Amino acid sequence: MAMTTEGVVPERLVRAAGQQPLYSTLADMLAREIQDGKYPPATTLPSEKELTERYGVSRQTVRFALRMLRDRGLISSHPGIGTIVREPIQSQGKFKALNSAEDLLQFVGDTEMHALSRREVIVDEALGEMVECNPGLLLSEATFVRNTPGAELPMSYLKIYVPARYAAAQERPTISNTPVYQTIEKLFNVRVCEIRQDVTATVLDEELADILKAPIGEPALQMTRFYYDANQSLVQVTLSYYPRSRYTQSARFRISDEV
To answer: If DSSP codes are grouped into helix, strand and coil, which group holds residue 110?
Structure first.
């Protein structure tokens, strides 16, 4: 949900002689508003234009202020979506359910993908059923372990499949936090317009347990995400495995008085 400045009276910032730069004052003000809950986690900040109009400052001042907030880990910027308020560091721990594209982008930005392997695979019947592709299709497979910075144990294990023509998008540093699908968009002028997520229960076999440093047979969640372009063509499939002890999901629903 985006926060707008509609109906807000402009609050012009003024820098007195000897005080900190104007962009630093604006950054401090926005940081307080985030910490006070005016802009909750996973919401978007007003646009640069809206902030410029609200505070009577230049676009450059706003950009410098937002850069300071990004450096503090309070926000993250995403083309086509906007500037998203991040979860406070102290609340990050177990992986929580993702319910929107904004949640997914924040989650990726808050974690690290450690590259393990990359290879070409020919889809067999078993893999085809999992990724909804016909047997015989050539795919590029890249595997990663996802970590929370500073955590002792891996959060999850990922297998990312893309059509062979997009294989170059899987070439990345040993540690990164840029989604593969965004690299595909950048390199191949493809736009992901829809993400579908399926969740099933599984148990960790010996290989997965070893990679995730978890007991063999521990219950886990397998999350499969399908990324589609505007023509509903498949751009990417991601298989993720989360041990039970490293996953939590909660939701709150308000009951209408009419029910």
So the answer is: helix
Q: Which residue has the tokens 């808050």?
A: 110
Q: Which residues contact 32 (CB under 8 A, 6 or more apart)?
A: none
Identify each DSSP E strand in the chain by its residue range: 75-78, 82-85, 95-96, 112-122, 138-147, 156-163, 175-176, 192-203, 219-229, 234-243, 247-248
Q: What sign does the CA torsion over 83, 87, 90, 95 have?
A: negative
CA 246, CA 213: separation in Å to the nearest integer?
12
Question: What is the spatial distance between Cα 14 and Cα 4, in angstroms, rounded to a whole number?
Answer: 22
**In this structure, are residues 232 and 196 in contact, taking their beta carbons and an 8 Å threshold?**
no
Q: What CA dihedral angle connects 120, 122, 126 and 127, to 10 degrees?
A: 40
- Those residues whose C-beta lies under 8 Å from the C-beta of residue 56, and which sit 6 or more positions away, are 10, 11, 12, 13
The burial class, CB within 10 Å (0-12 / 13-18 / 19+), for 3 is middle
Q: Which pair of structure tokens corresponds to residue 53?
A: 């109009």
Q: CA 30, CA 35: separation in Å to the nearest integer?
A: 9
**Among the listed residues 165, 157, 146, the one whose alpha carbon sits nearest the alpha carbon of residue 202:** 157
The answer to whether the pTM exceeds 0.85 is: no
| Per-run averaged pLDDT (10 residues), the chain, 259 residues | 44 58 88 87 88 90 89 78 72 49 59 93 95 95 89 91 96 90 94 91 95 94 93 94 80 59
CA distance 65 to 195: 32
Distance, in Å, from the CA atom of 172 to the CA atom of 52, rounded to the nearest integer, reads 36
